[in-house]
Amino acid sequence: MYRQMIDEAQTALEAAILYYQGEPIGTVAARDPEAEALNYDQCFVRDFVSSALVFLMQGKPDIVRNFLVAVLGLQSRERRLDCFQPGQGLHPASFKVEVQAGEEYLVADFGEQAIARVAPIDSCFWWLILLRAYVKATGDLALAHRADFQQGIQMILQLCLEARFDLFPTLLVPDGSFMIDRRMGVYGHPLEIQALFYAALRTTRELLLPDGTSKTYLEAVEARLSHLTYHVRKYYWIDLQRLNEIYRYKGEEFGDMAVNRFNVYPDTIPSWLIEWLSGTSGYLAGNLGPGQIDFRFFGLGNLMSVIVSLATGQQSQAIVNLIEQRWQDLIGYMPLKICFPAVEGQDWKIITGCDPKNIPWSYHNGGSWPVLLWFLTAAMLKMGRDDLAYKALEIAEKRLLPDQWPEYYDGRTGKLIGKEARKYQTWTIAAFLASKALLENPSHLSLISFDEDLEVDACLIKGSPVKGTHFPNEVI
Ligand code: GLC
């Protein structure tokens, strides 16, 4: 039975491969024979990462290499003053192969075709993270050092490091610019983007050659990494101690010495949260901005923060504790909740714009996404909790094949197959295979993980501000 499941997953993954000029170049998002394809017949950059990790772990790096080269070729290269064109350095959300006059072409979508016209800010980060994984798996550093790759990396940095409209070290993005690509109140400084941004910056540290103009970029990367790390670890962190601080916050503090830096009012603490946390659990908040902490728990951002060491060792441990202690809420009958809890009633109306696909406990609004299984497995392995990874995989194994690899599940505990979920969703299939491969050979974890950044951590442990932090007058 078990062997059969793996074989079927492998066959389904291979059937999803997209070919361009005779070469494998990516995987399509889903192959549901019963649903209209829309753009699910395209290769999404974020979705392909799950497939790519499987291919790398299985010693089949060619498709990943082809993908990296192809997506680099689609990167927006020109500096434009045209608001309808993607900004220089941006990577597409997805691409497809089109045939014109007997010739094949790649056609990219930067969000101009997508529902609600959402821009994919995460694509350029995923491309970088995958490039590092490919280099680690193959030792082919020469690819990353190629002039066009170096230029592509610089363009991503230029796009992200340029000073813009706010004064935070986190990245300001529009709603729906990552895995949650619909209106969900995730505009501003969402955790998922910050965790990917952090991993991408650490990647450039490893892959950018320190010559010519790159030196300036590398200096900017160092500075940004320390600002970003400090900011997320300190201000996004939620545990009982921090909740007590926020609970007693004063408002309207002016000037440098303000304790309540973002003017968050204690009344915004949701009532469910106080009982939800224990003395040993914690997590990183979903978003932080002026007058706002989004207290929802977001799965990908928290797990990725553990995997790439954006969270400290202690914080990572508390996140693991939370998942273990709130197993029924976060894992239930299918790992893992994309976000918890769902927004309901008037909040649902205002926050999602009455989105019928994002009704409470469905899809992005509290649905359970099997793709998050490999993130969970990787995070648990990193924290030495293989037992929890196995336990979650066992739950998923019972259902994924008979349910035909759904895109997502619905309900408070993930009991129902998602109302509008695609079947044969490629990243669901890939996440199962990747989790299996990770558990069989935990050394694969290094493809995606980062060790703690000792330089930054040493400063934080000593209690002195990290050199050049965003709020230099503050001692933690
Ligand atoms: C949905 C998801 C998005 C994914 C796409 C293709 O739009 O929200 O994250 O990339 O489907 O699977």
Descriptive notes:
The protein has 476 residues and is mainly alpha-helical. It has a single domain, classed as Glycosyltransferase (Alpha/alpha barrel). The chain contains 18 helices and 13 strands. It has helices spanning 2-15, 45-57, 62-74, 122-138, 141-145, 147-161, 191-207, 214-236, 240-247, 271-276, 299-307, 313-325, 327-330, 345-352, 372-382, 386-400, 426-440, 454-462; strands at 17-20, 23-27, 43-44, 94-100, 103-109, 237-239, 282-284, 287-289, 292-294, 297-298, 339-340, 409-410, 416-417. The strands form six sheets. A three-stranded antiparallel beta sheet has the order 3-4-5. A two-stranded antiparallel ribbon has the order 1-2. Strands 6-7 form a two-stranded antiparallel sheet. The radius of gyration is 21 Å and the shape is globular. The chain binds alpha-D-glucopyranose. The site of alpha-D-glucopyranose (GLC) has 6 residues, from helix 2.
Oligomerization category of the chains in this entry: single chain
Q: Enumerate the strands of the largest sheet in spatial order, edge to edge or round the barrel.
A: 3-4-5
List the bound ligands.
alpha-D-glucopyranose
> What are the segments in which pLDDT stays under 50 over at least 5 consecutive residues?
463-476
Architecture (CATH level 2) name: Alpha/alpha barrel
CA distance, first residue to last residue = 54 Å
Class by alpha and beta content: mainly alpha
DSSP strand content:
5-15%
Could you provide a short overview of the structure?
By secondary structure, the chain is mainly α. It contains 18 helices and 13 strands.
